[in-house]
Amino acid sequence: RGAAVVCQEPPEAVLHHLDVANRLLAEEATATCIYGVVKGSGADCELLHSSAGHPPPLLTTADGATRYLDDGSGLMLGTGVDLPRPAARTPLPPHSTLLLYTDGLIERRDESIGASLDRLREHAGALARAPLGVFCDELLIRLGADGTDDIALIALRPTG
User: Fold this and answer.
1) In total, how many domains does the chain have?
2) Is the dihedral of CA 133, 134, 137, 138 positive or negative?
3) What is the mean pLDDT of the chain?
4) CATH number of the domain that 105 lies in?
């Protein structure tokens, strides 16, 4: 948050600054991170985002259609590779749900990452019309019960 507040720059620039700080403070430490800014409201709501190796955000529309926001994804922080950070701009339709989550929600030792991501899409699509609190609680119940990693999720739903 400090880098975002001090820099007041687009998400990809903030991640670049975090990567530089990471290299200076902890040479061999890596981390994933996603940084996004929601702009506008109603039909003009959009997400400006950049990811450093973090699981992709999931966008679920009011009719239950889902898609991962893979654009704007780059290498984790701390790799030592100095490449430009990608960024993306994604419209957020009214009454859609944007979900950001940690890998603990989806990863299972006996399941491929693709199958885990498919499972999240299926449950999120089925919960598209549920109130936001129920959406989150049900995802935790349905997906988080047998995991061994910590879980965090953030969801937002633009209104019309």
Assistant:
1) 1
2) negative
3) 92
4) 3.60.40.10
